[in-house]
Write a structure and sequence with these properties.
128 residues, mainly beta, 7-stranded mixed sheet, 4-stranded antiparallel sheet
Amino acid sequence: EVQLVESGGGLVQAGGSLRLSCAASVFTFDDYAMGWFRQAPGKEREGVSCISNADGTTQYADSVKGRFTISTDNAKKTVYLQMNSLKPEDTAVYYCAAVSVILWDSCRVSDFTPMGYWGQGTQVTVSS
């Protein structure tokens, strides 16, 4: 079974930066697409950014384009989310998810459930 462990969340002022990390325990990292999702209080979980480890294809939500960057370190089986120019509306619990590239099509929660794997989440709070 795949296990995902996120780290790197915290409190930051608006305009600041954070880098989230997600370490995956998978046999073959290249067989998976990885994604970052977030859920703010009272809102549905939404896709932030996703990447295919098979070919490097990336997707970003419009709200984070130009500010967030997703990347991977295949040797460490880790996916990162570099978040710059953070805004108060970026405040949420951020989740890492993984799903077989065979099943992946888009950066939506539905593509990572029910056959995907999810981390426990890490809180990101951006103060104004």
